[in-house]
């Protein structure tokens, strides 16, 4: 069973890479355990759109 997390209220000053690094540093179980990451970037504004999506093949990693 796949679990998808929608993360909202992402500070717009974070780049896609900075957000991903921050999430991976929060808990060891997140590192390398998701198979999809999406944080849309607004090219005109030069910032992210305030949300991100992470997809976990194993629900226990999403729970952590």
Compile the SSE list and pairings.
Layout: E1 3-8, H1 16-26, E2 36-38, E3 41-42, E4 47-48, E5 51-56, H2 59-63
Describe this structure in words.
This protein has 64 residues and is α+β, with helices and mostly antiparallel strands. The protein has helices at residues 16-26, 59-63, and strands spanning 3-8, 36-38, 41-42, 47-48, 51-56. The strands form two sheets. The chain has a three-stranded antiparallel sheet. β3 (41-42) and β4 (47-48) form a beta hairpin. The chain is elongated, with a radius of gyration of 12 Å. The mean pLDDT is 89.
Name the beta content range: 25-35%
Oligomer: single chain
Provide the low-confidence segments as ranges. Answer: none
**Mind summarizing the main beta sheet?**
3 strands, antiparallel
The neighbouring-strand order within the major sheet is 1-5-2
Distance between the amino and carboxyl termini:
16 Å
Which percent bin holds the helix content? 25-40%
What does the overall shape look like?
elongated
What are its keywords?
64 residues, alpha+beta, 30% strand, 3-stranded antiparallel sheet
In short:
This protein is an alpha+beta fold and 64 residues long. 25% of the residues lie in helices and 30% in strands.
């Amino acid at each position: 069973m796949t679990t998808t997390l929608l993360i909202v209220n992402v500070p717009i000053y974070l780049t896609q890479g900075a957000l991903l690094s921050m999430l991976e540093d929060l808990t060891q179980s997140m590192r390398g355990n998701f198979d999809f990451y999406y944080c849309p970037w607004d090219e005109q504004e030069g910032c992210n759109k305030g949300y991100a999506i992470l997809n976990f093949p194993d629900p226990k990693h999403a729970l952590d």
